[in-house]
Fold these 2 entries.
Entry 1:
Amino acid sequence: MRLSTYFLPTLKETPAEAQIASHRLMLRAGMVNQETSGIYTWLPMGLRVLEKIQKIVCEEQDRIGCHKVLMPTIQPAELWRKSSRYEDYGKEMLRIQDRHGREMLYGPTNEEVITDVVSQYVKSYRQLPLTLYQIQWKFRDEVRPRFGVMRGREFLMKDGYSFDLDLESAKSTYRKIFESYLRTFARLGLTAIPVRADSGAIGGDMSHEFHIVAPTGESAIYYDKAFESLDVDNISYEVGSSLYAAADEMHKAEECPIPTSDLKSARGIEIGHIFYFGTKYSEPLGAKAVGPDGKTIALEMGSYGIGVSRLVGGIIEANHDEKGIIWPESVAPFKVALINLKAADVKAQELCDNLFNTLTSKNIEVLYDDRDERAGTKFADMDLIGLPWQVIVGNKTLETGMVEIKNRRTGEKQEIAIEKVLEVVG
Ligand code: ATP
Ligand code: MG
């Protein structure tokens, strides 16, 4: 992508309304634009990150055998009356009427819709276990939308729903998804702490929230300090659920099973939440199946959320410095920043064009700063945007064929021949 023709409306000034780093940086780096309170347009740079997160989330869901669907954002009130949640949900629900006066709503979550779908097609234990998921926009009319996309009113969520015949099978599904979440967050460059949680409004018996630690987190969490040195790629359900970690409302100092010297208390950002809730929805919405014994029973269910749009902010909270964002490679909008400091020079243009073509032909995503701007502006913009690698073509390149390569995370710089760039960033 050539920066001279890209739509990247970066801001020099820090927007006054942004209270936390990720919100400030997302606005300054031209990733989103606020339309009204808690509602955003995703601009090209922000959308690239959102899509990378979605891809990783989907890959990990598919890997454990979940099937992707897409449910509507608009739902009939009737389904929510069946589960008795229509009135209970209160003011967070955006209620709408169609032209015939029928009551509709913009989905804040999808238990009712998915249970209705499954009730129509699943009739036998042979069709189970089954987990369906989607990535879809939700609307919750939050009292206090804030921190940019972290607490929006319209936000993107991965929501999955599991259906099992019995408790044992439901628990095994829950475990599988628990482990898969830890792997998903690790791939996103995050250490997520699975805290025992109150199952709250959705209701149920077993629930974990996944938090990343950040001073700006909205929740208080308590956890065994061993979580900080776990091998996140290999952490299992057994380890993850045997180590102590609890959300504020579940933590009782006097009952805490670990010594205070091992206990950490911190602020957390909730990036995922999983629940097991038995037959709470399957019963009223009629999702039943015939078991091997010939008896028809209501299905055991769980639901599993990941805050996809919140993650964009969360990843930035965990990965930035005073100059800007530092993207983990897996979600970076581009991998390489190619900075031409001699953009008006024909020879430099030719060198950069060739390098750009070489890298892109190897499927490396490059943002090529071909603008005729001051070096200081170019460096500041690229540090703000935070791509993992910066390749700098300047006077030296014209004289000796050497470029400078900077690693955005470590700040380390090296000089190498322009032909060797692919070896470093590839
Ligand atoms: P919170 O406690 O932060 O309000 P929640 O417990 O109400 O979240 P869930 O119903 O568990 O949210 O939704 C699943 C996930 O969706 C959450 O873990 C979070 O990552 C994300 N999420 C929830 N509300 C919002 C929001 N207003 N804006 C962005 N993401 C959200
Ligand atoms: Mg939650």
Entry 2:
Amino acid sequence: MATNENRGRNNPLRRDLPPAMVPQPCCVVLLGVTGDLAQRKLVPALYDLATSGFLPAGFTILGAARRDFSDQQLRELMKAAVFEHARIQPVQPEGWEDFAKSLFYQRVRFDEPGDYVALGCRLKSLAAERMTGGNRLYYLSTAPEHFAMIAGQLRGAGLAGGANEQPWTRLVIEKPFGRDTASAAELNRALQAAFDESQVFRIDHYLGKETVQNILAMRFANAIFEPIWNRRYVDHVQITVAERVGMEGRRGQYYDTAGAARDMLQNHMMQVLSLVAMEPPVGMDARSIREEKVKVLRAIQPLAGPGATGASVRGQYGPGSFAGQTLRGYRQEEMVDPDSNSETYVAARLFIDTWRWSGVPFYLRTGKRLPKRLTEVAIQFRSPPMAMFAEIEQMPNAANQLVLRVQPDEGISLSFQAKVPGMRMRIRPVKMDFRYGSSFGGDTPEAYERLLLDAMLGDSTLFISADEVDYAWRLITPLLESWQESPPPPFPNYAAGTWGPAEADTLFTTPGTGWRKL
Ligand code: BG6
């Protein structure tokens, strides 16, 4: 039977590609290894990388957390996690046994200097035993309040290395990166006191998604899109990150202190927006791309406060239903304050003050408990200068749309008007559709696979610089403050299983425009 992997390998579009790079031998130190992220995403991603042949001989994972665990206990915990969450299924018992040999555990209480000394000794002995050459990648998947302390403790124990040193030492930081401009700046200062900026890799897992990277390929590996990628031809842009999930498991505990603007808008959506709106970089290297992204973030007009031109709407879901299933309201979710005013939906209209985008509205929306899981970027082009076909005038959004589907069903489609066959000149919109799955075949790696591999290779292109974090917070913080200062909204204001608050429609002021019906 042709498996996805085989279809991928035999696909002519994949033939003659240069082999992927394999990193130098190294030890990945997963701090917070007993947490949810490590079990659901990180260790399964490392297993998938190992199984696909991307990891070097001697590759080692040293899990660290506060629990008093043994190597064997960690292996048992991760066995269940990998069998359930690995992308490459079914997990072969021999494959797992091989991988399990690279897994070790070290107890580290994050505020205990002695534990870091012990960590250093363990790293040394593992380096000798497994011939990792002493290269280390620390991955902080702990609660965010520990990030600064762990970085400082690693430096204090002489485990932080330095820029351009061999063996190399790098630090990967998970989100959330701060709660606002001031706390993010403080975290950046703490990290930079312990590590050189070139050693710090800030994760935004959206950048690891294939179709998000494809925004760059589509824009800059083709000549036909760039000439129309500007205010002369683009009417507006819509970015949607819709989620069906609510507050499953213990998620409400974190989410209720964050809300949609911190959880999704400040990071994932701003990253996607900056890739869509940036100028062509001078090269495809990390520095050039990050510089252009920062310029976009700097040029976004304020969403709140004096002189704000942007606008926003927030929402929170109440009880509802979907496909016959009754859904709780947000305030009834586990670990959520029953009087919570945290938003589970946010929509914004913003403007980017550059020659390319001046006056073009960018509409962004994201929410939990919407009817679908779907992430897309839709470029809505202007209407033709003259209405030669009467029918088009009556159709809202009749002009061309280019839609980049990030997930699911990754692909790109272009809609345009065509004549309906027949005796009369009748016009209907039709689509040209490119689908990743059917064109390239094979499975697409998970975002975390790509990002972990890049961090081991030392390529920071798909990671966030300190400046990007700073400018994204400078945009979102005044918005959060203005919400704090205004009276609490009439929450809940949308039913679970619907497309968010009706008020979000008011962000569109031009007749005939509105949110895409997905
Ligand atoms: C995370 C957010 O960063 O991204 C979650 O904290 C959200 O709230 C998730 O559900 C969405 O990621 P994905 O890859 O499922 O789109």
